Amino acid sequence: MDQQTADDYLHRIGATRASTLAELQERHLAAVPFENLSIHLGEPIVLDEDALVDKIVRRRRGGFCYEVNIAFGALLRALGHEVDLLGAKVFGGDGGLSPLFDHMALRVDEFLVDVGFGRFTRHPLRLADRAEQHDPEGTFRIVETADGDLDVLTGGAPTYRLERRPRTVRDFVPTCWYQQTSPDAHFTRNLVCTVRTDAGRITLSGNDLIVTAAGGRTETTLPDDELLAAYRKHFGIELDRVPRLR
Hints:
Strand order of the largest sheet: 5-4-3-2-9-8-7-6
Helix content: 25-40%
Strand content: 25-35%
Radius of gyration: 17 Å
CATH class of the largest domain: Alpha Beta
Shape: globular
Number of strands: 13
Distance between the termini: 34 Å
């Protein structure tokens, strides 16, 4: 990433070159939505760094884990950080684990950074710290498994299992293809766009607009002719057609 693109990216998330790593992560989460709209708009997702940065910075879109973490990692490298891509398996409701590369996270210097898991930590976690780590989004803990992987716990419940071995973008290509094409994949069966707000979170899931804040949760079903305006108002996303579940 060249320095002009890095500055444009910083402007996109409301940060500066003086921002700390924690500030960069927090601002990214508040500016760049977690969304899978491309899958339901028929837009192929290609894990190319330049294309993903262009999608987020110039097209002012978001993405799911591979997209936003690859792009954010590129920004952090341009700012002088050491960044590795890490593969992860996600824990299901039954306690089982998804396949490796089902999720991507970042090791930045000695921290776990993740802007692609929907609701997760607002600030980086210290990878070597086994004590509870307190974050505005809750209490997190990193536990080493018998095989040397790292389980990330949220409020005491396992969220995902992180591999320590650095990976390349190429390692995630098959699973990314699966996520956008298989009828069994979570992202082909669900349509979501969500972003953190100062008060909580705002989500558009299909036609349902969900707002969570300190005062509670409200859910409103929007008619089709209001959806494009809702994407524009709440997420800054300009679309020429309404995404539909494939």
